[in-house]
Amino acid sequence: MSRIILGVFLLSTQFIFAQHLSKNQFKVKGNCEMCKERIENTAKKAGAKTATYSIDLQTLTLETDHTISTDDILKKVAEAGHDNEKFKSDNSAYEALPGCCHYERNLQPKSVENHEHHSKKENEFYVKGNCESCKARIEKAAKDAGADSAEWNAEKQLVTLNFDPKKTSSDKILKKIADVGHDNEKYKSSDSTYKNLPACCLYDREILFGEANPKVHAEEGTSEHSEHNDHNATNENHGNHEKQIEGVTVTSSKAATSLNKKEAGLVFTIDKKELLKAACCNLSESFETNATVDVSFSNAVTGTKQLKMLGLDQKYTSLTKELLPEIRGLASAYGLNFIPGRWIENIQLTKGGSTVTNGYESITGQINTELLKNAEKPETSLNLFSDFNGRAEANITNVSPINDKWSQTFLLHGNGTFGDTDMNEDGFLDRPKGTQLNAAYLLNYNDLEKSGLGSHFGINFIKDERTSGQIGFDKKIPQDKQSLYGVGIDISRFQVWNKTGYVFKGKPYQSLGWMNQYTYHQQDSFFGLRNYSGKQQTYYSNLIFESILGNTNHKYKAGASFMYDGYDEMYLTNNFKRNEIVPGAFAEYTLTGLKYTLVAGARVDFHNLAGTQFTPRLNFKYDFTPQTILRLSAGRGFRTANVFAESQQYFASNRSIQILQNGGNIYGLKPEIAWNYGASLQQEFKLFGRKSTVVADFFRTDFQDQVMIDLDRSPQQLTFYNLDGKSFANSFQTQWDFTPFRNFEVRLAYKYYDVQADYLDGIREVPFMAKHRGFVNLAYSTNKNNNGGFWSFDTTLNLVGKQRLPNTSSNPEEFQLPTYSESYAILNAQISRNFNKKIRAYVGGENLTSYYQKNAIVDVKNPFGNYFDGGMVYAPIMKANFYVGLDVTF
C-alpha cells in the first residue's frame, strides 16, 4: 500500500510541476546540425527543461518553469554565437563559429534591447498585425482578458498594456490575443484561427519580432490593403516593400533579384544591386545575369541589340518606363540604348500575359523600368566607364528631398564610341562610332498619409548620333560621292509625362490614378544608298479607379485609356503616313482566398485602323504550401506591326522590301493577334541550411494574322505578309537559385524553345532561335569591413545551341550560309571593390571565350553588290572586350 501511495505522490508531483512549465518558440539563426546541437545544449545548460531547434524553420522551442527567464536563455544562446529575436551575438563569438555555421546576419533583427527605432518598456509586448481591424481585435481581446486598457501600435507592432496584477497577468492577456489570431512574443496563434482572419489582417508570420511590418505605412501606422496596384495609391510591388502612387515609390528593403510569392503572375524584380554585377551601360545590358531574357546582336554593321523573351522577338514584349509606353514604334530598333543602366532603380519583369490595365500590346510579357527617385537624404552619384576599345561614358545622378512632401531627381548621361573596332578584320566597324546625350528631370510629390494625394512629373531629352560601315567612311560626304559603304543614324527624342493619384480618406483600398505622356521621336538614317527616316508623335492617357466589393478579398479596377500614334515615314522614295487612334476601356477583378489568388480582366479597344479588339486575360495562383506555388495564366494581345522600324537590322543589305498586302489598313496588313498560355511551379526548400528555389515554367504563344518576316524566299528580298496558317512558340525554362555557403549565390537555368510558323512555302523553324540554351551565374562577395568595404566577384556563362539560318542556297557557293549555325558559349566576368559606402571600382570582361562570328557579313568585299548582307548575325561579332569603371557617391 505504501508503494501505491508513493507512486501516486510522485505522479502528482510531476503533474503539478508540469502545470508550471511554459512552452515558447523563438526565432534563432543557425545553419546545420552543429548549430542545432550547440543551440539546444546551451539552452538546456541555461535552465530550459527541453530545447528543440528546427534548422528549416529557424525556431527554438523552449519548455521552462516559472523560475527560469527565457530572456536569460536567449542571451546565453547569443553568447554562444547565434543571433535571435531578442539578442544579437557579438562579432567575435559569431566569427569563432566553424565556417559551416556562418548564417546570414544581414537578415537578423536588431536587438530588442537596442532597437534602432524603439526601446521596449516593461508593459509593452510585440504583437503582429496589419490594419485597423487588427487593432480593434487585439485591444478588445486584451480587455476581455482583464486589461484596464490596451493600445496597439501598427508601426511598432507593439501593444501597451495596463492591468492590475492581482486580477490578471501579461501571460493571460497575450494568450487571449493569440487565441483571436495574433502571434505575439509569448504565444503563437493556431493555424486555423490565423487563416480565418480577413485577408487584410493576414500578416507575415515569417517576419521576426522587432522588425518592421512592410504592410504598414511608416508614418502613421496605417495598413496597406492593396498588394499590387500598378497605377494607384498604395502597393506592395513585385517583392519590394514599398508604397507607390503613380510612380512615387518609397522603398524599405529589396533583394537583388526576387520572385514575388504574392503575385498571381510570374513577376521578377531586378534591383539595381543586381545590375551592378555587370557593365550594364544601358537597358540592353541589364539582363546579363537574368536567365529569362535573351539579348543578342542582330546586325553586323550597326551593332544593333535586341532582346527576346519566350522565344519571340522584342516587339511582342511590352517595354514600359514608369509604367508608361516606352520602347515601341520607331524606337523599336535602338530604344534599349535610351535608358542608361545607372538611372534604373529596379526592373519588373512579368512573363506571360500582364494586367489589362497596362494596355493591349503585351503578348509574351512586360518589362517595366523604374527610374531613380527615392532618397531619405540628398545623394549625388558619379559613374565613369571605359572599355579598351574606345567606348566611354559618364553618368551623374542626384536624388534629393526638397521638403517632407517634395523630392526631385536629376539624371544626366553621356557616352561616346571613338575607336575603330574591327576584331574580325573585315574592314567594317564591329560597332558604330558616335555620341549620345541623355538628360532627365523628375519631380515627385507625396502626401498620401494626410491629403491622400501624390504626383510624379518627368521630362526627358535624348540626342543620339551614330556612324558605322567601312573604316574610313566620312559621314560628311554624301554616300554617292564616295566608294566606302556607310551607315548614319541620327535620333532626337523628347518625352514629358505626369502621373497623379488620390487615395480616398479613410479608405486606403480605394484610389484614383491618372497618367499622361507625350513622346516625340525623330530618326534620320541611311544604309549605304538606302535612306530611311521617320517621325512619331504619341500621346497616351490612362485613368484607373480601384476599390473593393464588400471587403479586401474582392478588389476591382476599372478605367479608360487613350492612345494616339502619328507616324510619318520615308523609305527610299516611298512615304508612309498614318494616324492610329485607340480609345479603350477595361476592368479587372481580384479574388483572394486563403491559398489562392485569381485575377481576371478584360479590355475593349476601338482602334480606328484595326477595328474593335477584345482582350481578356486571366492569372491564377494556388499555394499548395507556403513553399510550393502553382501559377496559371492565359490571355490575348494584339499590336500593329511597324515593318520598317522593326526590321532595320536587315537594311544594311542588298535585300529589296516587298509587302504582300491583304486589305489591312497598316501598310496594307492586318493587326497581329496572339494568345499566350502559361503554367509555372515554384518550389522553395532548404539546402545546406539555406533557402533554395526552383522555378519551372512553360508558355505557349499562338498567332493569328502574324506579320511574317520572310528571309527565305530569296537572299535578295525581304518579304512581309500576314500569316495564313499556324505560328506558335513553345518555351520551357527551369531555374534553380541556391546559396551553397555564405555570400556565394548560384543561379542555374535551362531553356528550350520550339518556334515554328507556316511560311508561304511551308512550315519551318523561325530563324535565329536556338532550341537549347544553358545559363550559369555565380556571385560571391566578401564580408564587409568596418568601413563598409568588400569585394564582389561575378561571372555568367551562356550556352547557346545551334540556330536555323535563312536559306541562301540561290547565292553563289562562296556566299551561301550553312543550314544551321554552330553552338557556342559566352563567358562574362566582373570583379568590383567597394572601398567604403561611397567609392566603388570595378573591372570586367565580356565574351571572355572570344567566340565570334567570323563571316558576319555576306560578300563583305562588295557592299554595293547583289549578295551583300549584314543582317545574318547569330553570334557575337566582337572578341573579348575588357572594361573598367568607377562609382563615387557624394
From TrEMBL:
The keyword Membrane applies. It holds the Pfam family TonB_dep_Rec_b-barrel. It is found in: Cell outer membrane. InterPro entries: Beta-barrel_TonB, Beta-barrel_TonB_sf, HMA_dom, HMA_dom_sf, Plug_dom_sf. Its main location: membrane. Residues 120-185 form the HMA domain. Transmembrane segments: none annotated. GO terms for molecular function: metal ion binding. Keywords: Cell outer membrane, Membrane, Receptor. GO terms for cellular component: cell outer membrane. The keyword Transmembrane does not apply. Residues 218-243 are annotated as: Disordered. Gene3D superfamilies: 3.30.70.100, TonB-dependent receptor, beta-barrel domain, TonB-dependent receptor, plug domain. This is TonB-dependent receptor. It comes from Chryseobacterium taiwanense.
